Amino acid sequence: MKLGGGNLRYRKRLSLGPLKFNITQKGLSSMSIKLGFWTWNSRTKKHSINLPGGLSWYSNSK
Fold it and tell me: Can you give the residue ranges of the DUF4236 domain (predicted)?
């Protein structure tokens, strides 16, 4: 659907405890697991860790 020269996009994020599901008009786009400071994303296959002081660490490779 076109609106003012742009496209209308459907996105939804569902949370079920530590599981986060990202859904688009095409279906499930990715899933994340968050346990404490650690997070894993199914689409990128990357891990991240939240650190103190607004810093974070994430893996560079899959």
Answer: 8-57
> CB–CB of 20/13 below 8 Å?
yes
- 4: confidence class by pLDDT, cuts 50, 70, 90: low
Contact criterion met (CB below 8 Å) for 61 and 50? no
Name the region of 14 (left: φ>0; alpha: ψ -120 to 50; beta: rest).
Answer: beta
CA distance 24 to 61: 25
φ and ψ at 52, to 5 degrees?
A: -65, 155
